[in-house]
Amino acid sequence: MAGSIFGKLLQISTFGESHGPALGVVIDGFPAGVRITPGEIQEYLDRRKPGRSEVSTARNEADRVEILSGILDGITTGTPIAMLIRNTDQHSADYEELKNCYRPGHADYGFERKYGFRDHRGGGRSSGRETAARVAAGALCRQLLKQLGIDCYAYTASIGPVHADPERFDRSLITKTATAMPDREADAEAMAYIAGCREELDSVGGTVVCLADHVPAGLGDPVFDKLDARLSYAVMSVGAVKAVEIGDGVQVSERRGSENNDAFLPERNERGDQRKKTNHAGGILGGISDGSQIVIRAHFKPTPSIAGEQETVNRDGEPVALRIRGRHDPVIVPRAVVVVESMCAITILDALLLNMTARADRIEEFYRFTAEKGR
Amino acid sequence: MAGSIFGKLLQISTFGESHGPALGVVIDGFPAGVRITPGEIQEYLDRRKPGRSEVSTARNEADRVEILSGILDGITTGTPIAMLIRNTDQHSADYEELKNCYRPGHADYGFERKYGFRDHRGGGRSSGRETAARVAAGALCRQLLKQLGIDCYAYTASIGPVHADPERFDRSLITKTATAMPDREADAEAMAYIAGCREELDSVGGTVVCLADHVPAGLGDPVFDKLDARLSYAVMSVGAVKAVEIGDGVQVSERRGSENNDAFLPERNERGDQRKKTNHAGGILGGISDGSQIVIRAHFKPTPSIAGEQETVNRDGEPVALRIRGRHDPVIVPRAVVVVESMCAITILDALLLNMTARADRIEEFYRFTAEKGR
Amino acid sequence: MAGSIFGKLLQISTFGESHGPALGVVIDGFPAGVRITPGEIQEYLDRRKPGRSEVSTARNEADRVEILSGILDGITTGTPIAMLIRNTDQHSADYEELKNCYRPGHADYGFERKYGFRDHRGGGRSSGRETAARVAAGALCRQLLKQLGIDCYAYTASIGPVHADPERFDRSLITKTATAMPDREADAEAMAYIAGCREELDSVGGTVVCLADHVPAGLGDPVFDKLDARLSYAVMSVGAVKAVEIGDGVQVSERRGSENNDAFLPERNERGDQRKKTNHAGGILGGISDGSQIVIRAHFKPTPSIAGEQETVNRDGEPVALRIRGRHDPVIVPRAVVVVESMCAITILDALLLNMTARADRIEEFYRFTAEKGR
Amino acid sequence: MAGSIFGKLLQISTFGESHGPALGVVIDGFPAGVRITPGEIQEYLDRRKPGRSEVSTARNEADRVEILSGILDGITTGTPIAMLIRNTDQHSADYEELKNCYRPGHADYGFERKYGFRDHRGGGRSSGRETAARVAAGALCRQLLKQLGIDCYAYTASIGPVHADPERFDRSLITKTATAMPDREADAEAMAYIAGCREELDSVGGTVVCLADHVPAGLGDPVFDKLDARLSYAVMSVGAVKAVEIGDGVQVSERRGSENNDAFLPERNERGDQRKKTNHAGGILGGISDGSQIVIRAHFKPTPSIAGEQETVNRDGEPVALRIRGRHDPVIVPRAVVVVESMCAITILDALLLNMTARADRIEEFYRFTAEKGR
Question: pLDDT tens for residues B24-37?
Fold first, then answer.
């Protein structure tokens, strides 16, 4: 219960430190009978990989995933799926001088106060590298969601002051641009901005938007386990996220009810759900999906590891002037896109499984059916 | 697991519908030996009560809490604490005409799709009234936090376009102004704005800020159960919240690292934690408390129940022009302040308990000590 | 997490002390749309009630259950079902002299060491009275199981040296005999034995058997959450149980494999499951139900509260000669039958819900179906 | 939630199939700062290893454990500890002919009905090999328990009709005899008995007893999470266990209260807990440890894989005469001893951690202390 297990029916247990032998994930509760394309898991991991372009660190992580259990002849078996990613390209020496001081903006101080100890080599468990395990799990969840007709995808919506223009939205660009922006012009502008940050030994933040299409109405529970509450939990658990918005998010607090309410329309969508005139709610009302597109936005802070000089203290509380060496992304956002997508996919699939037991008539049908078929 | 239980070591299980016989909460895992002042629970509930002023509905809910278990002679016993609040002033008839149509901005549609059924009387389980049970639990948690030296409190930071001015912040006003703003001028302005909304048969949103002082460094876990992730989950689970920010929140996505990082200072605070020059992080770094003030902001949408005419459909999917009658707050925010405070108090106390088992040396000391004392 | 919540998808949260204002239970995760007969809940509770005959205490507990939420017009709504039972006939004075000493065979000592405190009035939370809340929950689960064609029932198999004879098994006697034995002769013999115990100021133990018919094959999970592991947990959590057996239980440790293995037969049962020649396994193989009758046996110790003199110590560790006054059953078993039945029903229903998400093809069918039906 | 995660504060997540690439375990919630001797983990695993003597299979599993995370320079870091055991000596071909039939006494049938599929190679996830992961976790828990002064150990108490004699109990023999019996004479007799079983192409069951000394009073929770309920759950989750007894177990159901109650004595033990005259209760009263020795007994069925001919059916329900080939232990008990010990150690450590938050005065002391020490 030290917080490395996520999910309710579908439980993701991750492990591993940035500079230890390996990272990994165990998925318990993943349904049997799903055909898995290992190549897709790898592609998914590659989207998180550094070194894709000058945006990200030069560190060369192979991030080869090995499936240890739960998949036989390409099909899930219903038993826990364990996936392993070995750490290969580690420069622990880069971190030697950080051993005795607390980096501003990092978990160093709290971590040491909690455990009486700190793995200074790249942040240890607090490293962004931990998210590779989430992405491996997310890849599987996304494959099952796709088979169920649900499409969940994320992109970079802004980097610093540069925002992708919704008018120019082109989904196919997400995996092509270095920033993961769906807008080539914004991408170019953002790249220039990032280059400026690097030159000034500085870093910058940004936002990621995740959308989910064709989610059936009825997912999520009315009180604590609202679908949006679970999504916020999932997305806020990604390092460097400092705000989560559902639908129109922060804008709603200045709105009138007459503007913000979404009118229901007589038409139905392809899943038989009632359409709405607008979707300010981001597809979730009262914590339950309403059949419209689900919209989540995450705000990432600028990378705290900057090359410029910073004030801090050492373990004895004495002032230290710090310059962080080593390979650090001036912006974390492009690599975080697939992490946000993964956390949302895991959460939506979990809600989808949980929803199956909500109604007695469905349970009865289910078991009558399995008896008839000799299961 | 239908999502009405919240918490890890400290588990809050709530029940009850808006128009059923009663609401209530069972708290499992609350420590033994805490002196409880029942009057404080009641005061706490009264802050959520409608009818405090013209801001809120005329509905006269007595909201008398009855303690059913877990407290003997004013002291908690370590066993589950159950608290009951009877519903008394119900006008179910007000809801008769809503039986067959889906109110925009409400859970009606998703709820019906989920359960094949809907308690149309005041939203049933989806009603804001459900939060009374959370507040009863929050009152207890806040009392224990106070005894441990931790101070957790919330206030209205804005209503529509009217923002409380940090320069005029006066904590004592929170429980005195009708809006729960800590600023008398902003309160007056906001009241005027709300009156305008009501006249125009409309409603408005707003923001609540919750602060926690003297939280020890080290609370929260590094990966999924980051303290901020748990807080987001807790706060986003409150109906009508559409965005949650930690510290500077949405602002960080446009910032540079050099601006956003908080420098550690050589000074220590009263708990022995290192002070920081700024607190953009809102007291949480890498998911772990850093000893500085914890800062959470929740954005509430405008009350979806408005008296003005709205487009929607009935259960057969036919268009309906809807006007919602009955008693509805034009703004939910002032009453929600104590709910946000409660959810944060519950979450912080839970993290505080969880943190006790993080280190073997402490565990050893703990059991050596209890053996020596004959426990 | 102080252990008053049981279950995975179906979660039962109980509260209340023997001599506090009330006992109760909140059931989260119970499916919507189940027609509930409140009279059956009451009948079920009455089976646990003392005073049914000279076997049990003269204490006159009304045990009237009040439904507070989750059921509307006799149908479950999918939201938490809270049920309340007020305590009425309490003789706290009977317990005054027990305040300072530890009763042998009771939780007194451990409880006080744990919480630094003890509710001496009737054992407080450790009282057998706590099980009334479990029975209320069990009554609901049994009703749903029945609707799904599953029949779960328990009976007294032995009291002290008197065993019910399987040859004379008559299920209809379970609710008629004072001992809850399905055998009138054994019942008479046991009653005489109990009368002897009472005369000698002593008490006696016994066994309860619980059976479940028509459970589909496939319930339970292969590793930790084996169906038998969950059932053992459930049944061992009932006070005074000191051993749990599945199928032939303790006998298997002296057996040969050739005797103990159950051969599969070519015939199928009414649910389409393969029949077996014998059922030594008690319907569970490798933790998963195999379609045969599920068989669980619980061993209860003799009531620890006896009128005869006992050695013990007081809170200062000084020797005390104790005679327990008040109303105490010389045998707990007849009243415990419905408690064991309840815990098994809750556990089996939980396993049945959990099993619904085991296979991707079923999940797909489920959601295709709900989309077609407009859910 | 497919049941491969065990524990509350201390959570063990296992994965891996008998004939897949690897087995493993992730432990979340293990405290930081525990010095681990990897050699002890290996010794512990070796006790479970087959091939130790003619009692067990000739299969040569290296069972080399690799630590992937959570331990740095021999000290636990507070982050998840992942351990991996590669499968090496697999004879999948042995299982080819079992592909289409259900082995009596095995999970085959239920597994296939659940998942629509079955990994026939050695039982897959249902194989006893799965317990290697539990043992790796148990080894760590036992090391921490030892540092806290708690001694938890198991042994073979009987094999078929041969029982170890308590009068001849010699703890040092447990790891020396081939049967893991603490009695050399019984060991010899049992070995002869086993040899007879093998000759007759048959197998035999037995019992394992686990003891825990110096457990402080106060562990366990009063209602569902009684310490004995959690231990039963833990031990019954081990494959082939069909009954669990606490203390005198099944004997109590025929006893009188005056015989079965354990009198408290004026003396105190080394931990300051009150001694008892007898320990029929096995160290647990009302679900809470009472300071006396904890006693658990598990009954194992005979190995279901026997070489003699058995009746069964194939996947089409047609009768089949089956002879199981391959390497199978005629008795599982000697290898299961360390598995039972592991599950008990995990459960007791979990209860010990959970107990730390039971009292507000201790929580206050804890945080006052950490503040003073600058934590």
Answer: 999 999 999 999 98
Give the pLDDT confidence score for residue C57 in this predicted structure. 54
ipTM of the modeled complex: 0.96
B67 touches chain C (CB under 8 A): yes
Chain D residues whose CB is inside 8 A of the C135 CB are none
Q: What is the pLDDT of residues B208-260, one digit of tens each?
A: 999 999 999 999 999 999 999 999 999 999 999 999 999 999 999 999 999 99
* Partner-chain contact D366 B366, CB within 8 Å: yes
B360 touches chain D (CB under 8 A): yes
B1 contacts on C by Cβ (under 8 Å): 7-11, 28-29
CB contacts, 8 Å: C79 with chain A: 222
Separation between Cα atoms, residue D154 and residue D135, nearest integer Å: 13
Nearest Cα of chain A lies from the Cα of B72 at a distance, in angstroms, of 29
| Residue D216 to residue B9, Cβ atoms within 8 A | no
Determine contact, residues D239/D299, Cβ cutoff 8 Å: no
CB C52 within 8 A of CB C60: no
> With b meaning 16 or more CB within 10 Å and e meaning fewer, what string describes B321-347?
ebebeebbbbbbbbbbbbbbbbbbbbb
- The half-sphere exposure of B367 on its side-chain side, counting CA atoms within 13 A, is 29
Neighbours of C369 (CB within 10 A): 14
Mutate to test the interface with D, among B370, B372, B373 (most CBs of D within 10 A): B370
CA B299 to chain centre: 12
**How far apart are the CA of B27 and the nearest CA of chain C, in angstroms?**
9
Angle at C68 between CA C64 and CA C70, to 5 degrees: 125
The neighbouring-strand residues paired with A28 are A11
Amino acid at D24: G
D357 → closest Cβ in B9, B272, B361:
B9
Please state whether the predicted TM-score (pTM) of the whole model is above 0.95. Answer: yes
Would you state the structure tokens that stand for residue D150, as one six-digit string? Answer: 């708690």
Residue A141's identity, in one-letter code, is C
Contact C355, A256 (CB under 8 A): no
**What is the per-residue pLDDT for D328?**
80
Question: Strand C264-268 to strand A22-28: parallel, antiparallel, or no bridges (unpaired)?
Answer: unpaired
| In chain A, residues 305-344 whose CB comes closer than 8 Å to chain D | none
Are B242 and A245 a contacting pair at CB < 8 A?
yes
| Sign of the torsion angle spanned by Cα atoms A260, A264, A265, A267 | positive
Q: What fold does the segment set D5-374 form as a domain?
A: Chorismate synthase, AroC fold (3.60.150)
CB B283 within 8 Å of CB B291: yes
CB of B252 within 8 Å of a chain C CB? The answer is: no
CA gap B28, B13 in Å, rounded: 8
Strands (E), chain C: 5-6, 11-16, 22-28, 65-69, 71-72, 75-76, 81-86, 151-159, 162-163, 206-213, 241-246, 264-268, 274-276, 284-285, 288-289, 294-300, 310-313, 319-322
Tell me how far apart the alpha carbons of residues B323 and B311 are, in angstroms, rounded to a whole number.
9
Nearest to B241, CA basis, from A372, A232, D13 = A232
Q: Which chains touch A (3 or more CB pairs under 8 A)?
A: B, C, D
Chain A positions touching B198 (Cβ under 8 A) are none
Report residue D128 as tokens.
């006893």
> Looking at CA atoms only, how far is residue A239 from chain B in angstroms?
6
Cβ(A141)–Cβ(A349) under 8 Å?
yes
Residues C316, C101: Cα–Cα separation, whole Å: 9
Q: Give the per-residue pLDDT at D375.
A: 47
D366 and chain B in contact, CB less than 8 A: yes
3-state class of D360 per DSSP? helix
Chain B touched by D353 (CB under 8 Å): yes
